[in-house]
Write a structure and sequence with these properties.
The protein has about 290 residues and is α+β, with helices and mostly antiparallel strands. The protein contains ten helices and eleven strands. The chain has helices at about 60-65, 85-100, 110-125, 130-135, 170-175, 180-200, 205-210, 215-220, 225-235, 260-270; strands at about 1-10, 20-35, 40-45, 70-75, 140-145, 145-150, 155-160, 240-245, 250-255, 275-285, 290. Strands 1, 2, 3, 4, 5, 6 and 11 form a seven-stranded mixed beta sheet that branches. Helix 2 crosses helix 3 (about 110-125). It is globular, with a radius of gyration of 18 Å. About 55% of the residues are buried.
């Protein structure tokens, strides 16, 4: 028996659609695996009632199949499904790391990113790695067709999660199929700025790099109160605000001294819009870790 903790993540970060991701130091999924003749899955925790326990439809079950590592798998959900915080990715990442260790497969971390991405496809319909990469590797990650780059960073972040649901499939459905050249150039500049900010651990640069004019505005319309929450966060000292992944969570970067104020302002703005919410004061954190053997 072996237990792994895998963190929530935020993908896109505004300017890095389907490319950028960060591991958050909280919340997280905890997955326990035990060798078995065939895979069985049990789910508890946040939103467990919405997660299929059929191995063919569960991210962890797909990972077990890809690794040829049947197991009894218990998933304790700390990351709510349909949150924009990489819920399915956390389960897939934890299962990949746990089963690889349990069966002593010896895969590299980058191998496990590809395996976990196949698990993600069970939920999103496509094998995206922008959430599973940071959940396994930690830090700030850049996903390319030819590999994954991970950069250690400790930038303070606030992830504010409203009590509404935006499905990944719906959020992908509103993404524009084309963009004006000026918006593309702006996005490239923001992505470069954000990358430099992560490399330097500079919240101001990271915040500037979150500004994006193509995908984010389309997805923001799916989130009640989005504009007011962003304005409140900025007034409280956030250096940048954007949709976290597919939403509805909203991610803000800030300096350490402003983190508490930003978190409170975002929750209050959602409440004024008639939406309950909670905020996670976090930072760019570590990837999946074995916590018990």
């Amino acid at each position: 028996m072996l237990t792994v903790r895998a963190p929530a993540t935020s993908a896109n970060l505004g300017s890095g659609f389907d490319v950028f991701g960060v591991a958050l130091d909280r919340p997280a999924d905890v997955v326990t695996v035990e060798r078995a003749e065939e895979t069985m899955i049990e789910v508890s925790g946040a939103g467990a009632q919405y997660i299929p326990e059929d191995p063919a439809k569960n991210t962890a079950g797909v990972v077990a199949r890809e690794l040829d590592a049947p197991a009894h798998i218990h998933i304790d959900k700390g990351v709510r499904p349909s949150s924009g915080l990489g819920s399915s990715a956390a389960s897939a990442a934890a299962a990949a790391v746990a089963l690889d260790a349990l069966y002593e497969r010896g895969h590299t971390a980058e191998d496990l990113v590809r395996v976990a991405a196949e698990g993600e496809a069970a939920v999103s319909g496509e094998a995206h790695a922008d959430n599973v990469a940071p959940s396994i590797l930690g830090g700030f990650t850049i996903v390319r067709d030819d590999g994954v780059l991970s950069i250690d960073a400790t930038v303070p972040l606030v992830a504010c999660l409203p009590e509404i649901v935006v499905s990944t499939r719906d959020a992908r459905g509103v993404v524009p199929r084309s963009a004006e050249m000026a918006d593309v150039v702006h996005t490239v500049g923001s992505a470069a700025t954000l990358t430099a900010g992560m490399q330097r651990d500079d919240p101001a640069l990271v915040g500037r790099g979150m500004d994006e004019r193509v995908v984010t505005p389309a997805r923001a319309r799916l989130i009640d109160g989005y504009d007011d929450v962003c304005a409140a966060a900025a007034d409280a000292g956030a250096t940048g605000v954007t949709v976290s992944g597919a939403g509805p969570a909203i991610l803000a970067a800030c300096h350490p001294s402003r983190q508490r104020a930003v978190a409170s302002a975002m929750v209050e703005a959602f409440e004024e819009a008639g939406v309950d919410a909670r905020a996670y004061r976090s930072s760019v954190g570590r990837g999946a870790e074995i916590i018990e053997r």
